[in-house]
Amino acid sequence: MIRMMRHALHAGRGALCLRSFSETRGEVIEDVLQRTDSARLTNEASLYVHWPYCLRRCSYCNFNKYIPRENNDHMMTECLQRETETLLQLSQVSCITSVFFGGGTPSLAHPSTIAAVLETVSRQANLSDTAEVTLEVNPTPVGRSKLEDFFHAGVNRFSIGVQSLQDEDLKVLGRDHSPQQALLTVAEARRLCPGRVSVDVMFGRPKQSVESWENELSELLRVCDDHVSLYQLTLERGTQLFKQVLEGEVTLPTEEETAEMYLCARKTLHQHGLLQYEVSNFARQNAVSHHNRSYWKGTQYIGVGPGAHGRFVPVGEGGVLREARTQTLEPDIWMREVQQKGHATRRKIQLSHLELLEEVLVMGMRMTEGIDHKHWELFSPQLGLHEVFGTSSDVQELLQRGQLILDERGLRCSWEGLALLDSLLPALLVELERRVSLRLQEDEHAKGQTNRTSNT
To answer: Does the keyword Lyase apply (predicted)?
Structure first.
């Protein structure tokens, strides 16, 4: 459960046990539809591609990123293609629903790298002309100058790492762009992909106040497109910012202040037509991130590149259970392993049915729509949401407080509850584990009874 909580704070197919065909026509149709949706869980996947290089390390960042010692873009491109091909063959998915190039700083890559990876995907699986293809962009003059080439390479959505519109804050964060450069990058991205540009902005920054944050949001909303991602600055051990805070050189807002900033942002964005659809994400004109939404819906995703994570069934190896996979972290070692064996999967763990349900629960509850009954049933046909959570006294208390909602639609957080999600999840995870364990015991008991009956 602890591992699941960590996974949720950053961003399977278990043994899908489908109901047998019923004798009534209505239930047969329902079962056929369920089989179609269930088949989609293994036939489709999204693809994440990690470009590990940055020109510098931001003061707050502990992501898997490296300052390149030499230009090995050609080798990196070949290895990204090779691993993409290998893992797609291993998964045997027939359709890639979206592609996301993250990092690191993927806008440092040559546009031909992006085109080569997308071409590899298209050779192995169906990648629709309308599939969402996102590239993270550092809003420097160099990043901006390459946007059109990235667009022609196949990118149709940009995620711009604005982070702040305050010069001093950008310096403290170790960013290498100015507010003006960020605004120019957003404008160019919007020209190329109108309605498909997201901006990342960070709150809880050193010396930031609620009032300054509100003013900054108003300025951002005058230029942003139809999608905004909010991130609270978190202190990570081993970073320069962590050391500065520890030594008293830098102070951060209190928990109460950052909570107020989050609530302020939710209200301000909503007033400007950007509706919240996930804990950190807001969109208007339904310009949601389809790639990230696939994570929150518990669908398969394939991770390519140094340190990338994936969740898919390795059908090509005879697998029937979803695996959690992690690729080798260090780029040089990763490239060597890809050249030797086609991929650099360093760690793979089969997910039990409980672990799969934990992921579906934790990721699904991040969305404002939560988890509907039909979707939950795809992963848990024998234990519905009401059966799992409807009789728990702890969950009932959360329902009575108005923080959770469990009704005919499914399970979700209220407006107030979504801001408290991290404190609500432990009770839900404990109840899920209890109910799944109890069901396993009941099944084992029934099996034992059947065996004793057949032996007499």
So the answer is: no
| CA 288 vs CA 127, 275, 282: distances in Å | 19, 10, 8
> What is the secondary structure of 169-204 as a DSSP string?
HHHHHT-S--HHHHHHHHHHHHHHSTT-EEEEEEES
Phi/psi region, residue 370 (left: phi>0; alpha: psi -120 to 50; beta: rest), is: left
- pLDDT by residue (tens digit) across 177-191? 899 999 999 999 999
Please report where in the chains the tokens 């190896």 appear, as a residue: 317
| Alpha-helical runs (H) found in 311-352 | 331-341
Amino acid type, 280: S
Q: How far apart are CA 266 and CA 282, in angstroms?
A: 8
Residue 264 carries which side chain, given as an amino acid letter?
A: C
Listed residue (346, 354, 341) closest to 327, CA to CA: 346
CB 109 within 8 A of CB 74: no
Helix, coil or strand: residue 345: strand
DSSP state, residue 307: T
CB 106 within 8 A of CB 136: yes
Report residue 285 as tokens.
Answer: 């004109």
Residue 327 and residue 346: Cα distance in Å, rounded?
5
* pTM across the whole model: 0.87
Query: How many Å apart are CA 158 and CA 306, to the nearest integer?
Result: 22
d(CA 87, CA 105) in angstroms, rounded, equals 23
- For the cut 90, the answer to whether the pLDDT of residue 234 exceeds it is no
Three-state DSSP string of 195-249: CCEEEEEEECCCCCCHHHHHHHHHHHHCCCCCEEEEEECCCCCCCHHHHHHHCCC
